[in-house]
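Attaching the record inline, Q. Sequence:
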Amino acid sequence: MLGNDDWWRDAVVYQVYPRSFADANGDGMGDLPGVRSRLGYLSELGVDAIWLSPFYTSPMADGGYDVADYRDVDPMFGDLADFDALIEDAHALGIRVIVDVVPNHSSDHHPWFQAGLRERYIFRDRPNDWESIFGGSAWTQVADGQWYLHLFAPEQPDLNWDNPEVRAEFRDILRFWLDRGVDGFRIDVAHGMVKAAGLPDVGPKEGRQAEMLGDEQLPYFDQDGVHDIYREWRPILDSYPGGRMAVAEAWVSSAERLARYVGPDELHQAFNFEFMMADFHAKSFRAVIEKSLAEAELVGAPTTWVLSNHDKPRHVTRHGGLARARAATLLMLALPGSAYLYNGEELGLPDVLDLPDELRQDPAFRRIGESRDGCRVPIPWTSAPGCGWQDPWLPIPGSWAELSAEAQQDDPGSTLNLYRAALATRRSHPALGGGTLTWLDSPRDVLALERSSGDGDTLAVVLNAGEEPVTLGELGLSGEVLLSSGPLPEDGSVPPDTAIWLQPR
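Structure, as predicted:
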């Protein structure tokens, strides 16, 4: 079932945020046995792979992105036997498994930092003017007066990638997980490991130096030397059978810079965050899609499409409601390349905006008042009180009982069943996944495009982002509507905030 080495080129990958996905032992924290118990649900949803956010040993200063042991499972999530069982069950269902690797920084609980091996981190006698992504100085002073660099929280000291021992360690970490059967890696802060020589000041700058998913050109991000690391990693991936892959989380200043991470001697993919940041307007979506496809063509690799993840508000909230979110989803899933889903988006979950301050755990909230916790609230599985969780680590709104997987299971109009139908159609229709995209003439606030397999199979996609209905006749289209993000009137027009997939005739 897992024989295609190029599976990643048009895969639908589902991001599992383990703390918030499913809890098998009732302690309020999601865990690996919980993920394993829901693999049947993910198989029925129709995903090709899951991506597990960090489950490694960690004091959880930043939700597991502060790793103390890169080769073990935190007891909160289970143990290595649970991971091995998860891999085995997922592969039996035809689901591949991608894991996070966090190479820019470790936890300050990591044995290297605890042992005072400063040459493996970035220490200096005086700080420069670099700022943390989470706010404030990126430097913390230790007892003897030296300072160490942390581009994120103080509990996340940056590793020194000029040190060959650091490079060797991570090559070994990759092999450790590849030997356990993982199908790929999502590389956290893939643009951050190499810093400009001499650690020069950024200099005067209005506002914050950088932010999550920003695009600033800075001396601590997107330095040319980072590509040498990936040229070391690619032969390791290629030495294992089955199409092992890696995808970069890289925040860079241009699409041209992003394309440099992808190629036969570096990484397979890089996240396309521009699509996630697009406005719900036809012009905005089209501009991002055209630019992304053009840059992907330059490197001969498909692009990725993302609408939500663990770092940004869910697209139900960001786009202004469930109708728009469903329409944007149908557009995304029709585009050539691969798509990454975030756990719970298939239920139409919004961000939770009213979490009590004392319960928020995002380190950015404690430093600058910004919080990603609203998109990390645990998934509602049942309609009963607690939604299938006992004392979850973040409270689940009572209104989410109506959005639970149980409540949506048998409702043909539910968001869950829209995702299931879209993924099933995407998998079966020859024009979807790979192939080409051609724009069709359309009114100003409408996107219309044709997808083609190259062998005569076509599918039309229409998204109405305007304020008035649009008829298929206006677009020069006719045929059978295979899927609609919302109800359609009897006259066959496409209402505002609605997308359709049309089989032309």
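The two ends are 34 Å apart (CA to CA). The CA atoms of residues 231 and 265 lie 6 Å apart.

More tomorrow.
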